[in-house]
Amino acid sequence: MMRFEHLNEDLENYFGVDEMSRARNVTDLNKGTYQDIYTPETIQIVADWYKADIDLFGYDFDTGAQKNYWNEE
Questions:
Q1: How many domains does the chain contain in total?
Q2: pTM score, whole prediction
Q3: Strand blocks (E) in 1-73
């Protein structure tokens, strides 16, 4: 089983390699927040594509999840 919490180690075992190469940090390219990258059109695309998750977890564009699977208040 692979878990995100220790993904590099799990991938090393899965592929039988001593060390995985590290991913480069592409998030450093934007000095602002994720909100600076989105246009009204891309916000709507994401909202349409992930509607079920947004509704389930109570997301909106400006805040994090307002509820979770274990606490659906």
A1: 1
A2: 0.48
A3: none
